[in-house]
Amino acid sequence: MDIVLVFPPLGNHEHAHIGLPLLKAYLNKYGHSSSIIKDYNVEIMDKLIRDFMSGDTKTLFSKNSKNVSKNYTLAQEILRGRNQSDKLKTSWATDMIYKYMAVAGDCISTVGFDPISFKAVEEEFLNVNEEAENNPVYKYIREAIVPDIIEKKPSIVGFSLTYASQVLYTMSICRQVRKINPNIKFFFGGPIASIFWRAFMKSSAFAPYFDGIIREQGEVAVLKLCDYWIKKKGRMDEIPNLAYRDEEGIIKENPIGENCPMDDIPMPDFSDMPLELYAYPKLPFQMTRGCYWGRCAFCGHRGCNSKYMVANKKKVVDEIKALKEQHDIRMFHFADDAILPKYFVDVAKLITDEGLDIVYSVFLRTEKGFSKENCQILFKSGLRSVLFGIESANTRILNLMEKGMDTNTMKQVLRNFMEAGISNHLSCIIGFPTEEKHEAYETLQFLLDNKDIYHKAYITPFGLFSDMVDQTERFSIEKVDIYNPLRHDIDGYVAFEYSYNRNQGMSVEEYLEVLKEARKLIDSVPPGANYFSKSL
Asked: Is this entry keyworded Repeat (predicted)?
């Protein structure tokens, strides 16, 4: 086995993640067929949660926990083979899995490390006892994950880091494997590694245990890295998107290369994934890359509108059909950052024409192109749930964010989707730099006044991790520290951001108080611990 691609613990296991299946398919296409995906996260999550629920749950959970465990499998079966018209059963099944995830969050929060900052992760890594028998996470790493990697005898192990909560355990796996086989090469990719790569590269605690970080899109870069390490082809300094240390220990940052064309990326390969272990019987899929808007100030994709790419529409529909047949799954999540309305409607028409009989969710912007007629077309194709990033209802903040939206359009588009039978979920940001209390309350009031046009709203704190760090005067921030990412929202989402000082608007303490109030007023906080809340 040449390459092992790892999704490490601990993170969300609602459904499989798209990155590694796409990467494996691409590597196979270009000559690296000896690769395998290991989602150790879903394996340990399933084991830990079932162990907790089958034991004495009285001390940890409510009386309903055993019922949740009992009905969880039934709920999955309903969603796997559900008929689109059977709303009563599917509503019960969705609610049951939601309750399961809440209980699961409680389970994991009792044993998982809570990363409050990058520095705290480093300190824990340096001081932790990996041989401890009373910690089931380290025990699983020691007794299951490390032996499995060693047994496969890979030349390269790549880790996809999507959540801040994965960093500590990834480093522990690398350290333990490297003690046994120091010749294995390790690289990191995914959002956490891509955004905070400087912190990883500067870390003296982590440096001995990994060999490179792939920033942004990974297919071409990982292919060239594997060619270099396995086939001795090319040079390290020619690999796009790569950050690494040279032979003298000097940090090197190769330029960002061209993105891989969508039609050059094969259908994602889920063949190694234990799909029965994920909470929802659902597959992720991508038909686009980047964001066609690409201007939102807070977003890591800012400026990427010039790199927005779409796949051939027939290729999209053919691959969805093939995945449905291969894995006997009808639920999909389109994991695109944003999809142009016309392109999306054209794809929806093809899905309907092919009679695919699927249901799916998606991320969208509240664009005028989503007319009543187009929303009906989307519903007919199987669209049942949309997450919209409306972020704010205050005009000044929306303009400062460069969202390109207004509240009147938001309301009309949300109404169009709701009337078509599609469930709207909204994401809002509290604490954007310079935001005053009354402006944050304007967003909250918008949510309270328009409850009839959305199903649920998620209130998230502002996080600094975009190129706003290069425009400190415009956003009235200073003393940005890119080497010690941290969390301000300790009680909520497990997501890092750069530390910084604010010169205008609410302080961090003030916006966290508003955030807490807003979550209570609109019931934004899910029951139980937020270990599985959406993060970077």
From this structure: no
